[in-house]
Design brief:
This protein is α+β, with helices and mostly antiparallel strands. The chain is built from 11 helices and 10 strands. A hairpin with a 4-residue loop joins β2 and β3.
């Protein structure tokens, strides 16, 4: 039976109760430890449970605690192992495990959001929009003093992160421990997740011939800011097609030939900005393979 105090919370603050219940269902200790046992490839549990590490790291990630050490000190009795054991556990967590935790939580939360009618109005009806961007994992500020200003110090890792605005969730991540690696080295893994009907929105670093043509080949769609290194043939002059809040829009057809010699006809959309970007640009070009029924203005807005 539910206690009288809990019933009062249900009556007075149902949203907070539902959120707490949802978080407990997906990220409770039992669920997390079972998930870890199924997911980890090399690491195993001896004395320190994965759920304990997860709970300890939460206040660090959200800025409640300034460091792992401080979070450990606050939860030492609950963790029950030494600080050295905690660092050993963290140091040996696989990037595979970290990525799968993001995917697992997204898979679990998406149907809950849908059931509660929490999905947002689609930005473009009929398409599953995914925003992808690179993320440089921040270096620790607790590096030993002698190395803090050293230019040759090890770089932090890189990752590609996928965000779906309909659910408001980060649904995928592709981490890389090599801080010297280029984001483009992760494109192969990302492309394996592309499905027909997806609409990928991305910055200029993703605007490569291979990446765009591969998305097109898979029956998916993209809007990418143009990279100067992309080679294409202009098929027609720019035609004005409306205005947005940020400027006037024009578009033209262009042709890109992939490595196999196949031709891909894309649209090149230009926005002549009312105000320059922080880099001083007054004109922005984008490429898209969306059908013509999606206007150049809609592409610019997206």
């Amino acid at each position: 039976m539910l206690s009288e105090v809990f019933e009062r919370f249900v009556e007075k603050s149902p949203i907070s109760v539902m959120v707490r219940a949802s978080l407990e269902r997906v990220l409770g200790a039992d669920r997390l430890d079972l998930w870890f046992e199924r997911t980890a490839q090399k690491q195993y549990t001896r004395d320190l449970m994965f759920s304990s590490i997860y709970d300890m790291m939460n206040p660090v990630v959200f800025g409640v605690q300034p460091s792992v050490r401080a979070a450990y000190q606050a939860q030492r009795d609950d963790i029950g192992t030494s600080l050295v054991s905690v660092y050993n556990k963290l140091n040996n967590l696989e990037t595979h495990t970290a990525a799968e935790l993001v995917r697992y939580s997204a898979r679990e939360f998406a149907p809950i959001i849908a059931h509660m009618n929490g999905e947002r109005t689609p930005w473009l009806e009929g398409y599953r929009i995914k925003i992808v961007d690179g993320n440089c994992i921040e270096a620790s500020e607790h590096r030993i003093k002698e190395l803090r200003e050293a230019k040759g110090r090890a770089l932090p890792g890189k990752s590609l992160v996928v965000y779906e605005p309909a659910q408001g969730l980060v649904t995928d991540v592709f981490p890389c421990e090599n801080g010297h690696a280029q984001e483009r080295s992760l494109f192969g893994a990302l492309l394996k997740t592309v499905e027909a009907g997806d609409l990928w929105i991305e910055d200029r670093n993703f605007c490569t011939r291979a990446f765009l043509c591969d998305i097109d080949h898979r029956g998916a769609f993209f809007i990418a800011r143009e990279h100067l290194g992309l080679k294409f043939e202009i098929l027609e002059a720019l035609r004005e097609c409306g205005r947005t809040e940020t400027g006037s829009v024009a578009q033209q057809r262009v042709k890109v030939v992939d490595e196999q010699g196949h031709e891909h006809i894309f649209r090149r959309v230009r926005i002549k900005l009312k105000q320059a970007t922080r880099d001083g640009a007054t004109i922005v070009h984008m490429l898209t393979n969306l059908p013509r029924r999606v206007s150049g203005k809609q592409v610019a807005d997206l």
